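Field log, afternoon session.

UNIT: design team B
ACTIVITY: writing a sequence onto a fixed backbone
BACKBONE:
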């Protein structure tokens, strides 16, 4: 229930109550109180209609082909989203369905396909691809024959890789509307020029794409905006200190005013390896130590570190290990918390998990 509607109902009840005899006045007064406390209990004043729903479709950065990087991001409470990367789609949708994180009621009764089919074709309105590495697009390619027509958003070098390396009739049929003939025309490439904001078609959201440095390969930070709120979804990236670049610093500069206004709802950032990996073997990836270093850089740019307290930081692209012993996700969280002087809320995601931020 929206705040405006709650206020309207409350005003109507109070107005009518004034005209009533004393006994019935008490009944109406009680109704007003119930609505008021209900709103507090459900936190409706602060969250009504705001923020994002995020669903992890793929949380890892390798080894398992069914759990590669992909996150659905949509305006809270609306059955629509865009995918930030598409390393995996169907396995993740099924995991979210099994976990009860998609309501079966979003699928119209007469819709001919399963709930998974509905989500793939109707709920996902487009794909934001951070870079052309296989682990960020494999799910889109494999699901493409059964997908519906929609846009693929990316920076130009990434669109080129998709067109030349995948939808080229050698690796896979060309499901795009441009590139090698014949073009099957299902996906429209939408070029995101750096730092200019664009609409995400068929959604109320906007996106800005800023380039990242992934060991010399162009990767992308997507800043997704809905009303006054933003979520930042970062693709694979090295740390500025190691890449000798300013790419992450530019992202932090770009969002600093939103952080100051309390409008940054969550960051999705990679940490591929644990701290034991030497810097010269990171190949354009982050570790817990480097994630904390970059968050401190953001705090320094914002100027008020306490504004990052409790910020949800989803750790993506964790490379699983075949070694015996402790789970890499557990080691990752321990190492992240060790340097968590900002007191952000680190989240090690599970496939199919859903959050409202
Ligand atoms: Zn990569
Ligand atoms: Zn990757």
């Amino acid at each position: 229930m929206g705040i405006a509607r709650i206020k309207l109902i409350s005003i109507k009840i109070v107005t009518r109550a004034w005209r009533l005899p004393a006994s019935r006045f008490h009944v109406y007064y009680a109704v007003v109180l119930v609505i008021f406390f209900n709103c507090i209990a459900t936190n409706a004043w602060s969250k009504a209609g705001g923020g994002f729903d995020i669903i992890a479709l793929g949380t890892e950065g390798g080894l398992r082909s069914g759990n590669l990087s992909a996150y659905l991001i949509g305006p809270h409470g609306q059955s629509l989203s865009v995918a930030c990367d598409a390393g995996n789609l169907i396995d993740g949708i099924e995991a979210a369905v099994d976990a009860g994180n998609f309501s079966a009621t979003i699928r119209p009764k007469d819709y001919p396909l399963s709930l998974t089919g509905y989500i793939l074709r109707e709920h996902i309105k487009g794909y934001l691809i951070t870079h052309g590495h296989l682990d960020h697009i494999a799910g889109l390619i494999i699901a493409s024959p059964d997908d519906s027509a929609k846009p693929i958003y990316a920076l130009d070098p990434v669109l080129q890789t998709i067109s030349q390396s995948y939808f080229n009739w050698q690796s896979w049929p060309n499901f795009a509307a441009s590139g090698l003939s014949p073009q099957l025309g299902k996906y429209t490439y939408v070029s995101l020029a750096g730092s200019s904001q664009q609409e995400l078609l068929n959604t109320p959201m906007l996106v800005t794409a800023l380039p990242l440095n992934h060991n010399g390969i162009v990767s992308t930070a997507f800043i997704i905006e809905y009303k006054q709120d933003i979520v930042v979804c970062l693709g694979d990236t090295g740390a500025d200190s190691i890449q000798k670049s300013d790419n992450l610093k530019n992202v932090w500069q770009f969002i600093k005013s939103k952080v100051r206004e309390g409008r940054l709802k969550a960051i999705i950032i990679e940490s591929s390896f644990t701290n034991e990996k030497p810097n010269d073997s990171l190949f354009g990836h982050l570790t817990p130590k480097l994630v904390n270093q970059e968050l401190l850089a953001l705090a320094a740019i914002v100027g008020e570190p306490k504004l990052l307290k409790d910020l949800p930081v989803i750790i993506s692209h964790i490379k699983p290990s075949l070694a015996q012993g402790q789970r890499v996700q557990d080691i990752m969280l321990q190492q992240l918390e060790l340097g968590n002087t900002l007191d952000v809320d680190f989240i090690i995601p599970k496939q199919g998990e859903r959050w409202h931020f």
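LOG NOTE: The chain is about 35% helix and 20% strand.
NEXT ACTIVITY: expression trials, pending approval
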